[in-house]
Amino acid sequence: MSTVLQTADGSHTLYVPEIDESYHSTNGAMQESMHIFINAALRQHPQPHLSVFEIGFGTGLNAYLSLLEAEKTGRRISYTAIEKFPIAMDVAVSLNYEQHVSRYGYMPEKGIFKQLHGAAWDVKTDITPHFALRKIQADLLTFQMGENAFDIIYFDAFSPAKQPEMWSETIFNRIFAACKPNAILTTYCAKGAVRRALQQAGFQVERLQGPAGKREILRAVKPARH
Q: How far, in Å, CA of 185 to CA of 179, rounded?
């Protein structure tokens, strides 16, 4: 059973003792998500209407920050997240993310975070006029992502040491096919094997400076022509 932990920036994460791993960096959950997924991916794509696919809905933090970014900028986001093991609602509502988003210039609307977790699974739900959510309770290893469907990929699975099957070239090949031209994938993992698997799938990959406590992250882009 996961337990709530406070990270260095004051925001919460969940720790899973069965695999000895937390959902976010203990150096700061919110600053990590902002750095890797909002700053390095979402804000780098020029399209006004974005289709985002998140691997690992987890605590809902990435979805929540993406929603707030959509509300702040007026961009429209269609957000799909796959999660095999959703967290319980009582755990979700205990997380303190709404208390910390103002430091990033967001205006928290009370109850929105709970709406993300309360949205029905496997159907599209309009959370706000700018943000639609589809949560899928499934295993990425067997889920069919489709082709040419997504502008942004948040790759936020547990680490390769804990879930090696999630970081295979086979998975990245399927993700590559599901990406539109110029799609952006970001992940916290900068291991050489992951970088090479992304490159073998066809992505152009670069290392970026990591958030607090982490030296590097990876950003991968699907070429406009391949």
A: 9
